[in-house]
Design goal:
The chain is α+β, with helices and mostly antiparallel strands. It contains 13 helices and 21 strands.
């Protein structure tokens, strides 16, 4: 075993629950649902956890701010220190840490190789607060990897984790349990969503206390701390604006449009905060959507989403009936079914500890924190797709394929990221060079991607720095990029008919 004075200990994954109880003081005979969920998550075959490294006496910035704001002034104040439990896909035994440090000391090349190897086998960490009622603090865990078609784009945020003088890298979306002292469910959900968008734009993640401060600075209906009553919609809006973003609200009706908008933002890597409730409104709750899984062809629910637009066109997109959500009552990436029932989109937990919350949840409102210069919304992008659809269908018909097999996906992307994807596309070299050297893109671009027989057919790249306008018609379109060179001539005719000034490559 390691020396008794060391801050580091090791354990096996089957001891995760007891280690959380040891650090928080909770009772192992009546574990909180969040702890049970995390134990199940880590023990899943897709995660393949084989070793735990427990870091005692850990200072967590997020908890420390909560401590100063609330816990330090309690008569019986808890410790300001936490434990951090690191989870690996390799066993950790007596000589493991010494071996790591010996490899790190062997030179820069050996150290870099070690850090890459450990990052590849690093599942993430769980911060354990010294609170029996709310033990789970800031937690970063990698997503499941068994199914390639799962979309976890909001969780594709890189985090650097420093341990033993080593720097490990991990893609994850932060999760933590609400403590009802400094933050309730809406605070925690908003903290998760803002953590993603801020880091994606190069800023530092917020803390739950900073979210509470921003939400209650000018609008206060109840006590800000303790935060037992949660946040109102106005307070959520205020907090989002305080950090430099704009709240975009999505209506629950019509349901097909809402479904397409949710899919658009999740494909874009933008988490969506949902205000949900059960049938009798005895429960109002906030969760964060962070992914979805498209339906498979053999699935009984595999019918595509078909949205009829005012111009008579029908936009078709691949359906999804499973989503993944951060729910502070349960855990990260919780699997949920998404169904239309009684003209309402409803969510229901699917396993992974969801039996603790078996009621259906009705989506009332969706709130999306948008970068301020991302002024085009998902609805706008979908409208552009609908207006272009008849022309694209005519173009597809010239290939000899059935134009009814034309499907569409809409999403937003950083302009630089989109260019890097173009470089990797299967395009002729001269077309690839022409696009990346001639394209003038906004920081964020909208992309309407058309598929023919489920195969990429055409990208329409859209400026997002202006709202949708009818004059000039479709003037926001910046570029058209077909998969096949022979479609350029047809696109030139479309540009003439629609009077588009767009790059063709």
């Amino acid at each position: 075993m390691t020396d008794s004075t060391s801050r580091f200990r090791f354990a096996v994954p089957s001891e995760l629950a007891s280690e959380i109880c040891k650090a928080s003081g909770c009772d192992e005979s009546s574990l909180p649902p969040q702890v049970r969920y995390l134990v199940d998550y880590v023990s899943d075959a897709e995660i393949q956890a084989r070793g735990l490294l427990i870091e005692d006496d850990y200072i967590d910035r997020h908890y420390l701010e909560e401590y100063v704001a609330y816990y330090a002034s309690k008569l019986r104040a808890p410790s300001p220190r936490c434990a951090r439990i690191h989870i690996f896909q390799l066993p950790i035994v007596d000589d493991t840490l010494a071996d790591w440090l010996a490899r790190a000391a062997a030179g820069a090349s050996s150290r870099d190789t070690l850090q890459r190897d450990l990052s590849a086998q690093y599942v993430g960490f769980i911060v354990v607060r010294p609170h029996a009622a709310a033990p789970i603090g800031r937690t970063l865990l990698r997503t499941f990897t068994g199914a390639a078609d799962r979309c976890y784009a909001p969780a594709q945020t890189w985090h650097d984790v420093h341990i033993l003088g080593l720097e490990l890298s991990l893609q994850a979306l932060p999760f933590q349990q609400q403590d009802r002292a400094v933050g309730a469910c809406a605070t925690t959900a908003l903290w998760t969503a803002l953590s993603r968008v801020l880091r994606n734009d190069g800023a530092r993640s917020v803390t739950p206390f900073e979210v509470t401060q921003a939400a209650t600075r000018y609008i206060t209906y109840q006590r800000a701390i303790p935060a037992e009553r949660g946040l109102t919609e106005d307070q959520i809006n205020a907090a989002i604006r305080a950090f430099g973003y704009e709240p975009h609200h999505l209506s629950s009706q019509p349901t097909k449009l809402l479904r397409l908008c949710l899919k658009c933002y999740l494909l874009s890597g933008i988490p969506v905060l949902l205000d949900v409730a059960n049938d009798d409104i005895s429960l109002r709750h906030a969760i964060v959507l962070c992914g979805f899984r498209p339906t498979e062809q053999g699935d009984s629910a595999a019918t595509d989403i078909a949205l009829k637009w005012s111009n008579g066109t029908e936009l078709v997109s691949r359906n999804f009936t499973k989503v993944y959500a951060h729910d502070d009552r349960l855990g990260p990436y919780a699997r949920m079914g998404l169904e239309l029932r009684h003209e309402q989109l409803r969510l229901k937990y699917l396993g992974d500890g969801g039996g603790d919350f078996d009621e259906e949840l009705i989506i009332h409102t969706a709130i999306v924190p948008l970068y301020r210069k991302l002024r085009l919304t998902a609805e706008d992008l979908i409208q552009i797709a609908c207006e272009l659809l008849p022309n694209v269908a005519d173009l597809a018909a010239t290939t000899g394929s059935d134009s009814h097999r034309l499907t569409t996906e809409c999403f937003f992307s950083l302009g630089g990221k989109y260019l890097s994807e173009v470089v990797m596309q299967e395009l002729d070299t001269d077309r690839r060079v022409r696009f990346v050297t001639h394209a003038r893109l906004s920081r964020y671009v909208g992309v309407v991607r058309f598929y023919l027989d489920r195969r990429w057919f055409l990208d329409v790249v859209v400026d997002t720095t202006d709202i949708y306008r009818h004059a000039p018609h479709l003037g926001a379109i910046l570029a058209l990029l077909p998969r096949q060179r022979e479609h350029l001539e047809g696109l030139e005719l479309i540009c003439e008919v629609l009077r588009l000034s767009a790059l063709l490559a």
